[in-house]
Amino acid sequence: MTRLAVLIATVGYCGYFPIAPGTVGSAAGLVVYLLVWWSGSPVVEVALIAVLFGAGVWAGTIAERFFGGIDPGPIVMDEVVGMLITLAFIPVGISGALAGFVLFRVYDVIKPYPAGRFEQLHGGLGVMADDAMAGVYANLTLRLLLWLLPAWIA
């Protein structure tokens, strides 16, 4: 059970990348987003976000015990879900997806209120919730940028 949880929490061991595992996890989120984009279905998008969030809460709780810390670096499922939320329901091309990637990384690092508070929630919920909130901030900012600069980012 622990092996499966670590496999899920680290997104197939992407979280073990020695440099910037969170950025690698966010890049993995872009790859997962390709599946959503390919499906073209908002139902698939919502379902994937919900299933991966739930799996991340479960796996994150177990993986925290395995790694012996709160929200340890190798757990990157939260970044994958954060990227999916960042790009949710926004029809973007490559430049828009990359803009979303940068925005999510910024919000994930600075954790504006209440994202930083969500990180204090117990176990895997805290692991996942702060990045989900960063994804919401990034999504709203990306929408604003698409409205202000549609030719640059679309």
Question: What's a concise summary of this model?
Answer:
With 154 residues, the protein is mainly α.
Describe, in plain words, how this protein is organized in 3D.
The protein is mainly α. The protein is 74% helix and 0% strand. The protein is built from 8 helices and no strands. Helix 1 (2-9) packs across helix 3 (42-67), helix 2 (21-39) crosses helix 4 (77-86) and helix 2 crosses helix 5. It is globular. The model has no long low-confidence stretch (mean pLDDT 93).
Per DSSP, what share of the residues sits in E-state strands of 2 or more residues?
under 5%
- How many individual β-strands? 0
Terminal residue distance: 42 Å
The multimeric state of the shown protein is single chain
Give the overall shape.
Answer: globular
Mean pLDDT: 93
Number of helices: 8
Low-confidence stretches: none
SS content category: mainly alpha
For the largest beta-sheet, the strand count, sense and barrel status come to: none
Radius of gyration: 15 Å
Q: Give, in order, the helices and strands.
A: HHHHHHHH
Residues in helix, %: over 70%
